[in-house]
Amino acid sequence: MDEPVKHNDSCLLEIEHLEKVYEDDGYRAVRDVSFKIPSGLLVGLIGPNGCGKTTMMKCINRMHEATSGDIRIDGETVLDKTPLEVSKLVSNVPAELKASFGLTVLETVMLGRYPYLKNVWWETEEDETMVMEALKKFGVAHLKDRPLNMLSSGERQRVLIAKAYVQEPRLMLVDEPTSHLDMKYKLEVMEYLRAMVKTDMTILVAEHDISLMARYCDLCIIMKKGELVAIGDPKKIITEKLIEEVYEVSANVDLDRDGELYVLPKRYIGDYKI
What we know:
By secondary structure, this protein is α/β, with parallel strands linked by helices. The protein is built from nine helices and twelve strands. The protein has helices spanning 53-60, 83-87, 105-110, 125-137, 153-165, 183-196, 210-216, 234-237, 240-247; strands spanning 11-21, 28-38, 42-46, 68-73, 76-77, 90-93, 171-175, 202-206, 219-224, 227-232, 249-255, 261-268. A six-stranded mixed beta sheet has the order 6-7-8-3-9-10, sandwiched between helices. Strands 2-1-4-5 form a four-stranded antiparallel beta sheet, covered by helices on one side. A hairpin with a 5-residue loop joins strand 11 (249-255) and strand 12 (261-268). Helix 4 packs across helix 5. The chain is globular, with a radius of gyration of 19 Å. It starts with 10 loop residues before the first strand and ends in a 6-residue tail after the last strand.
């Protein structure tokens, strides 16, 4: 397995021998995964459907209980923390919002301040100022009174990122942020994520667009069948051989004229029957 890229000595996220086994059928979704991520990085989490990406992220934010192993943020385990304590360290941007409950954009983003509320029924002036600044930062201030379910996919994604941002996390987990977006909004969302890590936040992005991850991410983690296959600089670890091993696909992997890596799938090489 490739060694992690060493960007700095400040280790933000440490995963140590993480296992997740579902009790109902014994399925091992995450299998003895260990890695470390420094602070201030945009990290791509890549692999085929069912490889354990989302399950691992849900273990990190305690939506799932890990079967064994440890997860540490800034050197402290999250496994004995309450959900409220974890929410001050880790924020989550889901792949899709299943229900908006009629909330407006402003109300949705304000939910990100929930871990810090000192009053039961209302927010402080500091909370309101932070939320309004986030709405401006992510270009949705003009939509603040609009119901979330009335937004376009790109607008809704920016609102969810703004909500996660005002939680002031050390680590942000983003699940498939560009899956329903056109080219413009794909790039726009990635530009926002790229800018946020400059604040010393680390962002872990699970995504299927390998070329997009290679362009924007400092580090990529490759998984297959719950196991860690490779971790490192995307331009060094993403190769035609790796794509074939992980995806069972023949592909061209090359650099464009600007030096950006791209992956062009050609054909499926696994076994199939018609």
